[in-house]
Design a protein that fits this description.
Blueprint: H1 2-21, H2 29-42, H3 55-86, H4 92-133
Length: 134
């Protein structure tokens, strides 16, 4: 049974990493930012530039990577728990463990998303309040 779970895990990782292996076309943020700035200038608005090496951009990229990693862990937990539940052969102990793992995974994801939303809300208003001071 462990071989089956391990095989499914490896297969899932391979399937999820295919876009990275195939070098899917990546968006070109410089071109889209340039287009947005030209539209802003035509509308009489002040155009903005974002330095890709700024601390804010680096932190946002790290947070995005962490959220992707947590999503992968959540998927693995749900997948293995569901598989354990289906193969429990009506054993109440195994079903109870699988349900507990699913519940814990969902609660962990909910706590993480709430923390992400609260942090985003605070940072948004922090940026707005410091922009007014400049």
């Amino acid at each position: 049974m462990k071989k089956i779970i391990f095989s499914f895990l490896i297969l899932s990782v391979v399937i999820l990493s295919l876009p990275l292996l195939l070098n899917a076309e990546t968006p070109q943020p410089d071109k889209s930012l340039e287009n947005l700035n030209s539209v802003a200038r035509q509308a009489g608005l002040q155009s903005q530039t974002v330095n890709p090496a700024s601390p804010m951009v680096i932190v946002l990229r790290i947070v995005q990577m962490a959220m992707g990693f947590v999503g992968l862990i959540f998927f693995i937990q749900i997948f293995t728990s569901g598989f354990q539940w289906m193969t429990s052969a009506a054993n109440p102990e195994k079903i109870k463990k699988a349900k507990a793992r699913i519940t814990n995974a969902v609660m962990g994801l909910a706590i993480l998303l709430a923390a992400y939303l609260i942090t985003g809300f605070i940072i948004h208003y922090l940026v707005l309040s410091t922009a007014a001071i400049r």
